[in-house]
Design a protein that fits this description.
The protein is of the alpha+beta class and 302 residues long. Helix content is 26%, strand content 23%. The protein folds into 2 domains: 126 residues, 2-Layer Sandwich (Nucleotidyltransferase, domain 5); 107 residues, Alpha-Beta Complex (Actin, Chain A, domain 4). The chain is globular, with a radius of gyration of 22 Å. The two termini are 35 Å apart.
């Protein structure tokens, strides 16, 4: 009579793909074309009863004095593990409505302790965002420039080798940034132009306050290229990209380059995670909870 390895039971269920960031968390099942849930990486706690949590669009905009906002991930780093646990609980149980003990989980952030010890995940795999992003375009060598809510990374990838550099830049109104902000073709000329001084954008924020923008619409993006105009002594994004490529000594000088930017660029790392976990060749790569219990967190990155 053959024995059944219960540690392999999770492979009978669809894997979960979780891609957390400082601005949002993307989550859905393996094999889907895009994430089902994209929620803000923030939660609101009631000052009167901090067991009462609000998430995403349910965070009250009015009477905000009664709410404490918590951001578990800031600057691309986990800062508040308790809040992160509450956020993951909401994503898994309320958004995806799954039992995490029954699914393998691919993560783009090394939170193995939380997934294994708190949520009882049977297996997980960590693959960092730049690697997944470049694979989603069907290539394995290139430069990934990732502009997130609170940081920018320029990572060169050659086969399985990657190095990165970070430039922090904050943004508070993401939708406005995507729809209205733009890069000036001649910053100095546009800055002096009278046409750019008059208001170009009028809208209201969720709390009802009015906002009017003129040349801020192109002065903001200019910081990405010239951080020095705000007093930041860090290189611009094009310098990061150039410096990263120059350090790649295996890349031929006469290499042809392209600039792919597909419609899935907002969740490119999630897309490849969704694809790769469906492959039979990937299945032996899962790190099981038993391995974690025996060898510790180092087994995640072996």
């Amino acid at each position: 009579m053959s024995t059944v390895d219960i540690s392999e039971d999770f492979k009978q269920n669809v894997a979960l793909i979780l891609d957390p960031g400082s601005g949002s968390i993307k989550a859905r099942f393996s094999g889907d074309e895009k994430p089902h849930s994209v929620i803000r990486s923030v939660l609101g706690l009631s000052k009167k009863d901090q067991t009462e949590c609000y998430f995403d669009s349910n965070i009250p905009c009015k009477n905000s004095d009664d709410i404490i906002l918590k951001k578990p991930i800031t600057g691309g780093m986990i800062r508040d593990w308790d809040s992160l646990e509450r956020l993951w609980s909401h994503v898994l149980y309320e958004e995806l409505k799954v039992c995490p003990e029954e699914h393998g989980i691919l993560m783009t952030d090394p939170t193995s302790e939380l997934l294994f010890e708190t949520f009882g995940a049977p297996a997980m795999y960590v693959c960092f965002q730049p690697v997944l992003s470049i694979y989603s375009y069907g290539v394995v060598t290139g430069l990934v420039v990732d502009s997130g809510a609170e940081c920018i990374s320029a990572t060169r990838l050659l086969a399985d080798v990657g190095h990165g550099a970070l430039l922090q830049q904050r943004s508070s109104v993401c939708d406005m940034k995507r729809q209205c902000f733009y890069v000036s073709q001649d910053f100095e000329v546009d800055l002096m132009s009278e046409d750019r001084v008059t208001p170009l954008f009028d809208d209201r924020l969720p709390d009802g306050s009015a906002i009017t923008l003129g040349n801020e619409l192109f002065r903001g993006p200019e910081i990405l290229f010239r951080p020095s105009i705000t007093g930041l002594l860090v290189p611009g994004v094009y310098i990061l990209a150039k410096s990263s490529l120059e350090k790649c000594w295996l890349l031929p000088r006469d290499s042809k380059t392209g600039l792919p930017s597909g419609p899935h660029r907002g969740f490119a790392s999630w897309v490849w995670g969704s694809i790769v976990t469906c492959l039979s060749s990937f299945q032996p790569m899962w790190v099981k909870r038993q391995d974690y219990e025996e060898e510790g967190s180092s087994v995640i990155f072996d």
